[in-house]
Amino acid sequence: MDSMLGFLQITSFTIRDFIDIALVTFIIYRFLLLMRGTRGVQMTFGIVMLLLFYVVTRYYRLASVQWLLSNVLTYIVFAIIVLYQSEIRRALADIGKTSYWSHSRRRGKEGFEEIILAATTLASKRIGALIVLERDIGLRNYVESGIALDAVLTYDLLVTIFSRNTPMHDGAVIVHRNRVLAAGCFLPLTLDPYLSKELGTRHRAAIGVTEETDAVAVIVSEETGTISLALGGKITRNLDSDRLRVALHDIVEGRANVLPSTILGRHPESV
Predict the structure, then answer these.
(1) Which of 83, 103, 131 is the last residue of a domain?
(2) For the residues of 130-146, what is the DSSP string, one character each?
(3) Which of 32, 186, 242, 271 is at 20 to 30 A from 10, Cα to Cα?
(4) Helices 40-59 and 76-83 sit at what angle, rounded to 10 degrees?
């Protein structure tokens, strides 16, 4: 309280103070954006409640509980690193992205039609598929888990890879611009406890890789034959070729960092 009263008694307010407050506000704002829609929200709330409980124990001088919490809070920094490891990785990746310092975010569009045509064809035959488009954050770790191809992106190649008789059918295809980097890749599964139980491993892998990176994933359901799109840990289902085309162009060209509202608004199945 003495520190707060001393701060309020400051009579001079300089431009340095304004910049200082603005930077703190921006950091808090970016932190809240980073936590939004993730498990970090619940974990942050739990940590805040623990700290408030510690303040209460000090106020009422509950020695035993205070001793216990003091020893627990000693390791809070290590707990934060463990609990927020995915959020920390994503934040550092966002800071290091060249798109932060440059406006040249346009990507090659040569392979869009090949992906859309392949997705609609596979959907009509109820053949499952998972196509991940690499953006600013590299996917080399996931590329190395699959079979390296480095081939030109074509409709025939995608349909062949996801045919039921091929060993690469169950893995993901990773695409960079108009090149297929690898097939049969393993992706991290999302741990979101609120995700619909209707979504299988393929959809959970698509959400997982988009939680960790800024990639966009196109998913074809083997059970229902529907096309879905995942970005930023969110997924929109039941897309047709036209809406998929609009969404891909908006996202990859940098006009959208989340699923376009026109897509979300038409499909309440989004989760």
Answers:
(1) 83
(2) EEEE--SS--HHHHTTS
(3) 32
(4) 160
